[in-house]
Write a sequence for this structure.
């Protein structure tokens, strides 16, 4: 999964907002650039949809906006978490497979969102990260002992069309080659940050508390 400036490779996945809603402040995503030292990010952009990107009826409810001259959407900033220095993307390291390497440091990037409230429901994000004209890789979620999990539904846009994000079953070298492996659906790792919208009863209590404080102040 790669994003190169001008090629518009994008990833998408879904999340569910619980009732009564969320005040969203950011979206954290993850990527690596093989052999590159920090900082390597030159830009990126992100959209939030009320349905699966590309499907009929789905529309964008928030966007970081078109890329500016600095390659960052004008409605966001991107924060790099350099504290991920001990997190690496590796291949299967079972005997006979690839040895563990440290050339693929996975870095956390946050798309900062100034102000956004989402009501309860299902939403999708789609995004790209840029490294000038060089390649960026975005890892799928990983799970011990399995290639994927039930319900995985990540999507990738290749510049022309959306398609399911799949592990196509690359085989290890001999003598551990197991024969043909089927494709397995993948998920995109991301974190939504923010706070829950207060329940109506909580808002009533806060309002009553403010009224009581006002009365005490006037009495004083």
């Amino acid at each position: 999964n790669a994003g190169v400036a001008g090629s518009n490779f994008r990833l998408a996945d879904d999340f569910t907002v619980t009732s009564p809603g969320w005040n969203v402040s950011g979206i954290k995503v993850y990527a690596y650039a093989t052999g590159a030292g920090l900082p390597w990010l030159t830009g990126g952009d992100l959209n939030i949809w009320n349905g699966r990107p590309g499907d009929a009826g789905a529309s964008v409810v928030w966007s970081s906006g078109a890329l500016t001259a600095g390659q960052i959407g004008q409605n966001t900033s991107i924060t790099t978490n350099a504290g991920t220095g001990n997190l690496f993307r590796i291949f299967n390291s079972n005997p006979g497979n690839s040895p563990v390497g440290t050339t693929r440091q996975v870095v956390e990037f946050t798309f900062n969102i100034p102000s956004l409230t989402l009501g309860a429901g299902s939403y999708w994000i789609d995004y790209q990260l840029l490294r000038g004209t060089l390649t960026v890789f975005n890892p799928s979620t990983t799970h011990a002992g399995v290639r994927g999990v039930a319900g995985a539904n990540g999507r990738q846009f290749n510049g022309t069309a959306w398609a399911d994000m799949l592990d196509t079953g690359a085989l290890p070298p001999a003598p551990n080659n197991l024969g043909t492996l089927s494709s397995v659906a993948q998920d995109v790792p991301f974190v939504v940050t923010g706070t829950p919208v207060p329940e109506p009863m909580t808002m009533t209590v806060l309002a009553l508390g403010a009224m009581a404080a006002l009365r005490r102040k006037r009495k004083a």
